[in-house]
Amino acid sequence: MSAVVQSIDTNAAAEQELTDGFHLIIDALKLNGLNTIYGVPGIPITDFGRMAQAEGIRVLSFRHEQAAGYAASIAGYLTKKPGVCLTVSAPGFLNGLTALAHATTNCFPMILISGSSEREIVDLQQGDYEEMDQLAIAKPLCKAAFRVLHAADIGIGLARAIRAAVSGRPGGVYLDLPAKLFGQVMNADAGKKSLVKVIDAAPAQIPGPDSIKRALDVLKSAKKPLIILGKGAAYAQADDAVKALVETSGIPFLPMSMAKGLLPDTHPQCAGAARSTVLKDSDVVMLIGARLNWLLSHGKGKSWGDAPKKFIQIDIEPKEMDSNVEIVAPVVGDIGSCVAALLDGMGNGWQKAPVDWANAVTKKREENVAKMAPRLMNNNSPMDYHGALGVLRTIIAERPDAMLVNEGANTLDLARGIVDMYQPRKRIDVGTWGIMGIGMGYCIAAAVETGKPVLAIEGDSAFGFSGMEVETICRYNLPVCIVVFNNDGIYRGTDVNPTGGSDVAPTVFVKGSRYDKMMEAFGGIGVNATSPDELKRAVNAAMDSGKPTLINAVIDPAAGSESGRIGNLNPQSVLSKKK
User: CA-CA distance, 209 to 214, in Å (whole number)?
Assistant: First the structure.
């Protein structure tokens, strides 16, 4: 009897001295403070998800990998730590790849971890389960990509992924974990020693003194200066320094979409409501964490007017300079260090922007706000965009701490201009690509990472990309209120099939759809709102309750314009229609 006990005790001791790939990955994540995983379970990572949850990591299971990936990407933006997305091999990996590329394009730190088939079979193309050379496919679409083949390399592999994701210009990183890796066994002490805690993953990058002097000299010469704040400035979390720079300089500022709230949109220097005027008339433009891409008409063309422009650009990526136009004063470094250096160089006696320019911007802003006000106060039924957004604008003003998620075409374009933001990193939307499908993933991550209530303003088309994730929202009982602007179609619900056939036009959805019933199907609250008054009551009730809610906001099918405000990007045929 004692021999048996001794044998059992010996086996138990032996087991305690071993670890495996499953546990090493979990330990490496926890060691580096990555305590949340967004993903979809399946072969070969099902048990890994279970074990991670058992070890105290929060594992949120989605209905589609793309939504999980978008959640991880925006988690990275909100926390400055890499958001982690976990997928199965091949098709699941591909589903997550869109979000990884999105994270890289938007400079969000994210790590896509995917299980994969065995290298020996993949490399000989012998037809393994979900066979695919995932590393090769991922490389062109992300900032860095790594594969770990041995359990002893898990610690260093994750460390490299973390550092690549957050250092310099942040972005997406792919980490490939073949199925055999998870079950590899090694000595527990050796395994513990192999783990790496990443130190100073995103070190400060101090700008050169000459670049600071040059930028300030250009700024001093300005008669009509403008500051443009991009989402890079919001990501930096150097909020007080950015505010001090804007107010010390006295320069009007224009926030890009996700930089809204870095300073309140109601700030006296905010030129958001005078965008056309300041772009056209300014003579010196300082870009802080913003890029001169399509969202700013590449810094040229009719939207920038005829006035000669000098550009100052603050960015951590040197290659961003001169991307479209000449940058006369490039300042390379992290936003916090650059802005602090500029403030130091300005000192206490800085001459503020010319009063006549500031007054002209203020006058134009007030004129545009006054012109818009009556449109936001209508109580039409069915609603138009302005009446519905006027209600939501008021609700956000009363609840400035809430997270706002926004996607769509007209729904996005109009909400961006109408709904004021008051705090940084509260507005999250489609970003650089202007894509659809980010909505529900963003909602889930925003609720999980911030603990704040979430209001999503969704076009009906945009909602359709990730709508099934309302089940995920209900499953985790998240404080998310989704408002679907339902006008029966893409852009508008009034198009007709020119042939007279039975198929509806390609842009038309089912008439009178009730998206609220989807939420009710999973135990959430669904409301059908046909007027701004009904919408206001429903949203306030949802935000007060913190319960998963979806409001089907009935919008006039004729409301909206083709492609929203980027219709100019939609090619048009010049040929006459055949008769």
Answer: 9
Which letter, b or e, does each residue of 223-258 get, where b requires 16 or more Cβ atoms within 10 Å of its Cβ?
ebbbbbbbbbbbbbbbbebbbbbbeebbbbbbbbbb
Q: Beginning with the edge strand found earlier in the chain, give each strand of the sheet holding 172-178 in spatial order.
A: 58-61, 36-39, 83-87, 110-116, 172-178, 144-147
Q: Is 562 exposed, middle or buried, given 0-12, 13-18 or 19+ CB atoms closer than 10 A? A: middle
Three-class DSSP category at 166: helix
Residues sharing a CB contact under 8 Å with residue 403, sequence separation 6 or more, in sequence order: 426, 428, 446, 447, 450, 452, 453, 454, 455
Rounded alpha-carbon distances, angstroms, from residue 463 to 485, 541, 549, 556: 9, 21, 14, 17
Selection from 167, 44, 107, 113 nearest residue 431 by Cα: 107
Nearest to 98 by CA among 435, 366, 374, 543: 435
Question: For the chain, how far is it from start to end, CA to CA, in angstroms?
Answer: 97
| 212 closest CA partner among 313, 311, 341, 315 | 341
Split at pLDDT 50, 70, 90, the class of 131 is: confident
Segment (H or E) for 112: strand 110-116
pTM: 0.94
d(CA 67, CA 438): 7
Alpha helices (H) along 250-384:
275-281, 335-346, 355-372
Distance CA 96, CA 138 (A): 10
Residue 507 to residue 428: CA distance in whole angstroms: 26
pLDDT in tens, 504-535: 999 999 999 999 999 999 999 999 999 999 99
| Distance in angstroms (rounded) separating the CA atoms of residues 145 and 135 | 7
pLDDT in tens, 36-87: 999 999 999 999 999 999 999 999 999 999 999 999 999 999 999 999 999 9
Token readout for 60 is 């949120």
Nearest to 385 by CA among 485, 527, 464, 516: 485
Of the two residues 489 and 565, the one the predictor is more confident about is: 489
Q: What SS3 state is found at 131?
A: coil
